[in-house]
Amino acid sequence: MLKVEHLDVLYGDLQVLWDISLEVNEGEFVALIGSNGAGKSTLIRAIAGLLKFESGAITYNGILLNNRSPHNVVELGISMVPEGRRLFPKMTVLKNLEMGAFVKKARITRFEALNQVYATFPILKERAQQPAGLLSGGEQQMVAIGRALMAQNKFLLLDEMSLGLSPLMVKNIFDIISRINKNGISILIVEQNVPLTLRTANRAYLIESGRIVGQGDAKILLKSPHVKEAYLGMNPV
Amino acid sequence: MGQTLVYGILNGTVYAMIALGIALVFGIMKYLNLAYGSLIIIGAYGSLFLFRMGVDPFASIPVILVTLFLGGAILYKLFFSRLIEFPEGEKIKNSLLIGFGLMNVFDNLAFIIWTGNERSLTPSYSGVTFEILGLRVPLIGLIGGLLAFFLISILHLLLSRTYFGTSVMAVSQDHEAAGLMGVNVNRTYLISFAISVGLASIPSVLIGLQSFSATSGMQWFNKGIVVVMLSGMGNIYAVFPAGLFLGIIEALSIFLFGATYREVTGLVVFVLVLILFPRGLLGKRVES
Amino acid sequence: MKDLRKIGMAVCLIGLLALLPFAIRSEYLINLLLMFFLYFTIAQSWNLLGGFTGQVSLGHSAFFGMGDLITRLLWIGKVPILLASFAGGVSSMLLAGIVGIPFLRMKRAYFPIGTLALAVIAQITIGNILPLPTYLPGEYMREYRLFSRYYLALSVAIVTLLVVWRTVSSRTGLALIAIRNDEAAAEAMGIKTYKYKVKALLISGFLTGLGGSVFAYHQVSYYHEASFNLSWSFLPTLATFIGGLGTIIGPILGSACFLALNELFAITLGQIHLVIFGFSFVLIVLFLPGGLMSLSKQIKFALKTRLLKGP
Asked: What's the pTM value of the predicted model, to 2 decimals?
């Protein structure tokens, strides 16, 4: 479904991503893990159209995404939940969700979409008229995910879902994301929380200093000595 | 005194309309279009041209509106669009500089083409006044006031009830997130800027009916920026009362100090507000 | 070593300029050079605040006019010109202080607008208070020598160059540049940004006031509000941008450029040269904000990399 091939990304003169290749097949839940500054968010932002890249190609269902504007990418079928939630602070929860259905094809189905979002996140129905800026971190994360779902796209990009949330909330969110995936939405998630992510995802890629250094089945990676040492703080047995 | 107040209030409605255009662009993309006054004058010349061909000033508004809208779009595309990547402080500064340069271009071009002579449109109903509560209210001023109110209402509906309006709100609050929602951010900027310039058509006709000259643009920008500051830099809804406030203050100053210092009053108020209330009297941004 | 050479060249150049009026008979040329010195003074003093410190003032015409006004009044009131000139600079500095100090407290973006408002207020107020033109009394007319005007202009220009150069090379200069680059970061590093901004403003005001005094000494008759006209704000901004914002040489190049183009265009095209200037300004802000200096840097860099790449 989504294919990234030999991507290079530069910030001005500084190269931050080298020769990145990965793919996400239909229905998969794929994780991109790595430590801070490894380039995870950069990659996902490049896919979403928020960053330009130098060389390489990104294709979605065969359509080339190279350097399209973010609004194009959404129209073509990929929604993103950005790092830090990025809700519209002065708008109500409801208005934020409605913004999610801004693309023309989503406007027609927005009432059903809204009901689905309320079904997934019941608390949002209660909070519908509150300004989004006043919600707790966990609730804001739900709005952000719900907002992305409103576009009824089949592919979701998730950037650092766990940041700033309590462990219980994180577990909660991951359960919901897993359910969303089981309902047919393909997911590419970028995360620092390695154990939980690898337990939830199908496959994973490891990124270090702007390069892909490993990939494979998520459960197997979880047991690999390298991952254990680098990300889980354990000494290899 | 009461008479002066009446004129002050009516002037205030014109100031509010000028401020509306400036505030719209500032609220959404943090540009301050210093050339806005010059654009108003260009619109005034346009209506003068049409007037000489027999078109009633108020009837010329739609034509001027469309022309200015398109002109504004071109200006944005050619010049202002390139600043969008800069951080906020740089954006405001550079937009001022570009506006400064454009203002020079427009004012001097206007001077060359039309000379520095004072002009005004003089339709048959120029001098018509109504008597209300013992005070004379000029017809044109009254129409201007009604137009201002009408304009703000339309803008409110546009911003709160249409998809475009909601996208404008979203872009002004977080343009990156808005892009992720499917909003064409660049096009939103372009259209908003063009609307702002198009809006100048109404004050331009009203000013045309008073008097104007090639270099009088700056003084109108000054009124507008004072009102924008008073209303909190980007708060569209506070613009109307803030405009009236300025008009009333000016009327008071005429009453107390005479007419020569009318211009200075507004600017002094502006400077005082800048110093005492860096966030404007109401300190809010574009509301949803 | 390089510095000594530069200083040596500068001294030679100044010596040449000082002796010039004796060699050249053309009043037109001497006048032209005088205008160059004047434009340079205003541009370089603006540059200290706008280029090196990043505080763009659109209201320097108020400082110029102030210096001009006070100098004119004093000088016609029998005060010796050098004293009057100094007083003009001081008065301008005071004006800068009174209005500038609160302005610098505002968010950076509102400083340009505030100064612009100041300039317009000044222009209108002076236009109202002193609407009549000023003339030189008979005896002053008889004693009028272009020479003395030339030397005042040259001295003021040299003073400006020295003051700005010394300021920029000192610790103050480092602080100013830090403020221009990132005021928040500078503040975080312990630099009292406000203090330095005020310093730059006061120096800039003083020097621009001196420029105004040159104008007062030079002009025979004019309307008082002429020196408060906003075009005296546009000039230093344009000249500095053309030459190179935040460089010492920038205003020299820019003023020379501006003057040359002004002379060329004014004769051939009339009013339209102002339109061209405005347009060029916009283009420079957009595409070459570093002015000619950055252009020369880019060319040098391009040549170097081409040479390094080799055959």
From this structure: 0.87
Q: Pick B181's closest partner by Cβ from A74, A89, A90.
A: A74
Interhelix angle C27-47/C250-268, nearest 10 degrees: 130
Question: Tell me, which fold does domain C2-309 have in CATH?
Answer: ABC transporter involved in vitamin B12 uptake, BtuC (1.10.3470)
| Domain-wise residue ranges, chain A | 1-74+155-162+186-237, 78-153
HSE-up (13 A, CA, CB side) for residue A198: 23
Touching chains C and A? (3+ Cβ pairs < 8 A): no
Instruction: Indicate whether B205 pLDDT > 90.
Output: yes
Residue A52 reports pLDDT greater than 90: no
Percent of chain B exceeding pLDDT 90 equals 39
Distance from CA of C228 to the nearest CA of B (A): 15
Amino acid code (one letter) for B208: G
CA B208 to each of CA B28, B106, C297: distance values in angstroms, whole numbers, following the listed order? 29, 17, 49
pLDDT-derived band at C164 (thresholds 50, 70, 90) equals very high
pLDDT tens per residue, range A188-227: 999 888 888 888 999 999 888 888 888 888 888 888 877 7
The dihedral sign for the CA sequence B74, B85, C188, B174: positive
**Residue numbers in C near B34 (CB within 8 A):** 116
CA angle C78, C83, C86 (to 5 degrees): 135
Nearest CB to A75 within list B182, B185, B287: B182
Q: How many residues does the structure list for chain A?
A: 237
Selected from 1.10.260, 1.10.10, 1.10.3210, 1.10.3470, the CATH number assigned to the domain covering B2-276 reads 1.10.3470
Distance from CA of A225 to the nearest CA of B (A): 38
Position B285, amino acid:
R
- CA C146 – CA C152 distance, rounded (Å): 10
Chain B, window 177-206: residues with a beta carbon less than 8 angstroms from a chain A beta carbon: 177-186
**Interface contact flag, B32 C113, Cβ < 8 Å:** yes
Give the Cα-Cα-Cα angle A151, A153, A157 (nearest 5 degrees). 100
Q: Does B114 touch chain C (CB under 8 A)?
A: no
Q: How many CB atoms lie within 10 A of CB A216?
A: 13
Q: Over 80: is that where the pLDDT of B258 sits?
A: no
List of chain B residues whose C-beta atoms are within 8 Å of the C-beta of residue A48:
180
Could you confirm whether domain A1-74+155-162+186-237 is CATH 3.30.300.30?
no
Dihedral of alpha carbons B27, B32, B34, B38, sign: negative
Q: Could you give phi then psi for residue A85, rounded to 5 degrees? A: 70, -50
CB contact under 8 A, A102 and B182: yes
Chain A residues closer than 8 Å to B178 by CB = 88, 99
Mutate to test the interface with B, among A99, A110, A159 (most CBs of B within 10 A): A99
Cα–Cα distances in Å, from C107 out to A44, B88, B198, B200, C103? 35, 11, 30, 28, 9
ipTM: 0.87
CA distance B75 to chain A (A): 22
Contact A151 B182 (CB under 8 A): yes
The partner residue sitting opposite B180, judged by closest CB among A74, A90, A106, is A74
Contact C184, C78 (CB under 8 A): no
> C56 to chain B: nearest residue by CA?
B93
